[in-house]
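pasting for the record
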Amino acid sequence: MTAAATAFLGTLTPELKAKATFDFGDKHRLAWYFTPQQDKEKKFTRKGARLEEMTADQKKAALTLLKSGLSAKGYEQATTIIGLENLLLELEGPKGAMTRNSNWYFVSVFGEPSNTGRWSWRFEGHHLSVNYTIDKGEVVAGAPLLFASNPAEVKDGPKKGLRPLPEIEDHARSLITSLKEDQDKLAKQPRAFPEIKEGQPKADVGPPVGITADKLTADQKATLLKLLRAYTDRMPEEFAAAEMKKVTGTPDAKLYFAYSGTAKPGEPYTYRVQAPEFVVEFLNVQA
C-alpha cells in the first residue's frame, strides 16, 4: 500500500496532488460516504482526486492503489460496482435525479505514506468505500469497507444474470432458511436494520441482537462462517486471515446473527453479524 500510494502521488500534477492529499488529522478522513454526493446542480461534492480528471497513467496508478487493498476477487467486484454506474445511466437516462458517472470515484491520502509513521487512504464513490489506516508499516484498520450493488442482479441486456455480490446473499439466505422455529424467534427482528451511518468514526449500531452462534447447529455455524468469509475474501490474503482470526477467536456466545424480512428472492430483507471486534451489515430494502 505504501509503495502504491507513493507511486500514485508521484504521478500527479501539483494541482491534482493538492486535491488528493490531506493531513492525517483532517476531518475529511472520517467523512466517508457510499451514497451519491452531489449538490442541487448535480455537481459532485466529494473531496479527493477523481478518476475523471486523471490521465491514463494516473488512473492506472489510482486503481493499483485500490488493488493493493483488495484481493483479486475483491478488486473484480469493486470494478464491477464502478461499471454498474454506466448501466444505471442507461436505465435512468441523463435526466435522472442522480449523476451516474463511472469516473466519479475519488482517491484521498491522509498523511505521508511511509513504513515508519501513521497514514491512511480512501478510494470511494457511489456504492464503494475502501478505507485503510497504516501505522509503522502495519494495517491497523481496514474499515469501513463497503461494497454495494444496484441492481443486485442484472435482469436484461448483455449482462443479464450478472450478480456482483452473490455470496453475501446466498449464504445468508441458506442460514435463514435453515433456522428452526425456536431459533428463528431469536434471530428474526421486527424491523429492518437502518442504513449504516455515513461519515462516522464508529459503526454505532448499538448492542447486539439475534441468535448467538452457540445456539446454532454445526452446519448452521459453518454457513455463518462461510458468510463472514465472503466479506473477508474481498481483502488481501494476509489481512483477510487476520480478520477471520477475529471471527474464529470470538466465543460462540458473543457472535450474533440477526435478520429482518424474508429470505425469498425479490423481497426486502436485512441482516447483521456482530461481535465485540467487528460488525457486518447487509441491507436490501429496495427489492
